[in-house]
Amino acid sequence: MGASLVVVEEEVKMSAIGAGINVDLPRGHLVVDIGGGTTDIAIISAGEIVVSRSVKVAGKSLNEEIVKYIRSEYNVAIGIVTAEKVKKNIGSLVKYPNERSIQIYGRDIVSGLPKEAKITSDEIRNVLLSSFSKITDVVIEVMENTPPELAGDIMKNGIMLCGGGALIRNIDKYFFDIFQLPTKIAAEPLGCVIEGTKLYEKTILRKVEEGVYDDQQKTYLEGLS
């Protein structure tokens, strides 16, 4: 493609930068990036990823679980678009005041005719909690492998949530209740990776001027040939 410089970085690191974290400081930060295909969890300190894990539970799989649930409980086949609508409108991980239900429309899997169903917040919450338990298991694994010297930083800085999955209602309270750590949602969770990459460009240009990437780039390109 004619690129003069190729730099490969972890997506979760870009998310952290886009969320406003100064990753270059020698302080530990725990980042949970719930994207479309995977959820990436990492401890970042001094510009590097210290510990990281990834699990294939994220936006798409959550939608698929909602589709499966409605099919099995109501004999109604719906599409991913409808499942996404249900997740956005009534999805939550913790009970909230004035919970409501939503009418959905799909195809009766027995008769093949159009059919409607009324789905409650409580039903969808149970579906989401089942999937999120896999994410929390991985977060626990990451924290168990965190170097002791960064444990205090994680206690102080808490958890930063990024990605589209961070928009699920009460997700911050869910993580706080489990881990008893301060939990923040990025100001613009959907755009964290893009914004972080834009900001990181300045770091790349600075390193180019310092000659940091010369040997790295040569080694990387030789490895591709």
From TrEMBL:
| Intracellular or extracellular location(s) | Cytoplasm
Q: Name one Pfam family in it.
A: MreB_Mbl
Give Gene Ontology CC terms: cytoplasm
Transmembrane parts of this sequence: none
Q: Which family does it belong to?
A: Belongs to the FtsA/MreB family.
Family annotation (PANTHER family): CELL SHAPE-DETERMINING PROTEIN MREB
The name this protein goes by in its record? Rod shape-determining protein MreB
Supply the source organism for this entry: Zophobas morio
